[in-house]
Amino acid sequence: MGYIGIHQPSGESQIHNDCINGFFDIWQRGDSQTSYGYDSDDRWNNRFSDTIRTHEKGYFTSDGTSTGTYDNQGVTDNPKYFSRTIISSTSDPVQNYVIKEHKIIDVQKYAGKIMRIEFWARSDAMTNITIEGYQSFGLGGSPPRRTIGNVKLSLTSSWKKFSLVINFPSTHGMIEGTTPTYQSVFFWLSAGTDYSSRTINLGVHIGTIDIAAVKIYPGPEERPIIRKSEATELWNCLPYYETKYVPYELWGADTATTGRKSMVNFSRDKVTYPSIGTSLLLSDPTGTIVADNITNKGFRIRVVGSGFSLFEKGYVWVVWTAYAEI
Description:
Layout: E1 32-33, E2 44-49, E3 51-59, E4 81-90, E5 97-105, E6 114-123, E7 127-136, E8 145-155, E9 160-167, E10 182-191, H1 196-199, E11 207-218, H2 230-237, E12 241-251, E13 260-265, E14 275-284, E15 286-292, E16 298-306, E17 313-323
């Protein structure tokens, strides 16, 4: 929260890693989640069904805490963080699943092309994960394509690098809908029998799985990909999600229903019209907020104060979020 005045970083135009936040540097929403969807590590859709699990930030330190001595534990490119998924239990061995999904906007980007994926992973005990490619053609478009280039991988308690390719089919004859299209990479961490065909009989897993240093780029050959700076990663995350907190000074005259109005411009245009969330922080006096005139470039915010006299001055801190995940 509170990233203000973000400017586009320069000097990194040669970087070709299509995995935004693949090194898990950006966690605008928080450092952990038990909810479904996007609620911790930016650009990672944490999905589940009939399972108790937690997704959280992991630290490459000697003791696994944020204050420990840095230790990359053999993982290349010196990552600071990794994604940890702790699967505690499942209530349904048939329909359960736990997935980390990464979407790359515009299904044409890899249509008829080869994608190379590199990442590091480990688990608390020997287990498997499955990687799956996926194509989505947007609302009203052709049905999605699943089970593209599936491969099952074996994990141990030590960090291990994986490198594989997915051959995405051509989109010839497919119809694109009215919402953004994309291709996805699914990291299946656990799957009930309903998903055996998509996961190569992965099965249910109870335990901890860590993933780090994810790189996605055009294949088929491996190439040296420079790690993005945190400033670049944040810049790349902003079209999908942004949050800020800003102060407002209110006078008694702002207690009317019109309130204090101002336009908010996003740091970057969003990929679609976002949903806007607002809340008050450290409000004195009290107030209410209305957000309207929403576009992919910004919105209008109206703050109405209450509980103070005509010539009295008060302050409110407004926290807003713009959610445009596809």
